[in-house]
Amino acid sequence: MKRKWFLLFLILTTTSLISGCWNARELPDLALVSALGIDKNEAGKYVGTFQIINPSYVTGGLQGGGGGQGPPTTVYSSTGDNIYDVTRRLSTKSPRTLYYAHTNLLVISEDLAKKDGITNILDAFERDFEFRTTAMVVIAHRSKAEDIIKTLPPLDKVAAVNVIKTLKNTESLLGEEPTVNLQEVIHYLVSPGKEPLISGLSLKGEKKDAKKVTNAQGSSTPKARLEADGIAVIKDGKLVDWIHGKTARGTGWVLNRIKSTIVNINWEKEKAAIEYTVVRQKTKVTAHTKKGQPKISIHIHAEGDIGEVSVPVNLNDPHVLRKIEIEVEKTIKKDVHDAIHRAKENKTDTFGFGEALHRSDPKEWNKLKTDWNDVTFPKLEVDVTVEAFVRRTGLRNKSYLSELKNNR
Amino acid sequence: MEKAKISAYQLFVLIVLFELGSALLIPLALDAKQDAWLTILLGMVGGFFLFLVNYRLFHYYPDILPTEYMQKIVGKSFGKLLAFLYILYFMYMTARVVRDFGEMLVTSAYPQTPLFIINALFLLVIIYTIRKGIEVVARTGELLFFILFLLGISGNILIVISGIVDLNNLQPVLEEGIMPVLKTTFTQTLYIPFGEAVVFAMILPYLNQSKKGKRTGVYALGFSGLALTLVVAINISVLGVNLTTRSQFPLLSTIQAIQLDNFLERLDVYFMLTLILGGFFKIGLYFYVAITGIANLFNFKEPSKLAYPMGIVILILSITIASNYAEHISEGTRFISLPIFLPFQVIIPVSLLIIAFFKHKKKRGK
Prior knowledge:
The complex is a heterodimer. Chain A has helices spanning 2-18, 55-59, 83-89, 110-115, 123-127, 145-150, 159-174, 182-190, 245-255, 318-346, 353-360, 362-368, 372-379, 400-407, and strands at 30-40, 46-53, 73-80, 97-99, 105-109, 136-140, 180-181, 197-205, 224-235, 238-243, 261-267, 270-290, 293-309, 381-392. In chain A, strands 1, 2, 3, 4, 5, 6, 7, 8, 9 and 10 form a ten-stranded mixed sheet that branches. Chain A has a four-stranded mixed sheet with strand order 11-12-13-14. Chain A is built from 14 helices and 14 strands.
């Protein structure tokens, strides 16, 4: 009998202990942070801007109506001496505890990245167990991080989701924004043989309207929009340059980060006459040393289709396709050379040539690594070979343009 | 020694669970940088040798526990002292592993819960199992090994298809020559986790077909060694050497890096489940061995009665062995390798075997 009572007592006490209520947090007490912006004010303090999801306005659905009545996200901001200070000081304003496990966008202002560099602010995010290192990092181009966070975009209600999708789209369709997450940024910051590149994001249009609910409503053209805008080149933790357009694409080619992109080639003096869409791409970067001089070889392999022609050209003829391939190769090669040239001017090895050398010749690398970016990299010999293939030409062979030409 | 028998397969499962237990959790062998996986392979080879030493001793004395045959090999009083030291070693290791897991849970999931409570709850479950005896532990092992296996396979598949593995991170191989690799092997991986299999010297007498012991042990060590090599290589190729060395729990960071189509992510529970399963057996086996040793040495009839009091000792020990996690880990992977692991895992078994060998030769000579 005694034993029975003891067992009962034991069961009751253990169940109350192991049910996991020790530091339970209920959903109504949590504020889900979707994006986080970091600025620095005139006084030299960090300003954190927190985009918090308003659950009832995002989901809608069952409650009837849903969405629309209020802004889908709310923004709080606070200042502090370091990141943790900023986040804890927010408690004076927020009725709920901030919860970072769903934060997938970190916006850093251009000013902060240029003047102080990003090195001092990342540790807190990496160390905290709630914050995820898979969060995407972007730099607010020509605007404050605060403005980006406050914007209410159309289509996707939560701005962070909107931004991430836009950047991923740019990467996969245009090949110009190799997106990076926090883990990769830190990895490249630390690695002496590769410097980080961070996507840029800018707020275009009327900034003062960006944070109004009406920005996304009442008009088919939002007054303010967020746009992927260039890639920030980071050297020693500081922003040194922005690269855009073809240079950015050239960088994507070297980094093997092109999922798909467009290559416009000239044809018989017509500019951008034929459009070649890349479907598949593979880049190999190898390093070797000759007589103590490191040399980099880049081999690019691209496969793709013809997407559009604006000149009468006979796409039935394999010889013509071969000629197009050669033109494509030339164009890609030029983009890549431009990108490398720009990086050399910046004295910043954003391509990971140093890492390639480290892999192939660790001894030589140890000699060169201390002033790789400033001395060796700008003088580095880089050899680029491109192999492009036109696989298909879409649903038509010859363009109707050829018929028009024959009729004349 | 309780009257119990375990099968060869059960022994295999127990060895694998024990080996993977905390070795998956802690940053292992990273002094060798990107060659960490190589040091684990080398450690595994050393582990085979150490296991065969223990097996040979078991072969000479198939029916009695090491705590008893030590007394036969080196004499009653010295043998008793040696056995007592072994018991202390097993208890210390139990406490260490409990601490490992408590720290992991506090750091990565329960920041506000005191370490004491987590350790106490974990130990409570283990005490319960241990009281039921080795057969129950072994059967639980069979059951949970299957789950662990599934978790391991599916986890690896997820990591590979989410495209985060960059094999370039494993290069250059042998950047600073073979020396750092050998050094790390002999100061770390030989002992953690492979040398730790000395625990199974205390389990081998329970094996129902003693002939299969040798093959089972070697297979189990080989299997866990290869699994560990794979995990370490994946950690480094996903995170890079730098981040792996900076991580408190590299495997957790690797699993957190999985992102599949924006919906399969944050799979921390994979890590937790794997580690809790492995940890349960590692702590359980160390604890069981310590208790059996005490019962055997002091002629205690019912070893299961020792579980609660010893559990309290282990609990207090697990809290007091280090004041913070950094201290705990550097003690475990650096400071105690040579003064504790080397004698208990290598020197004593080998010298016992040498003495036993000559004693048996003499006997046969007569």
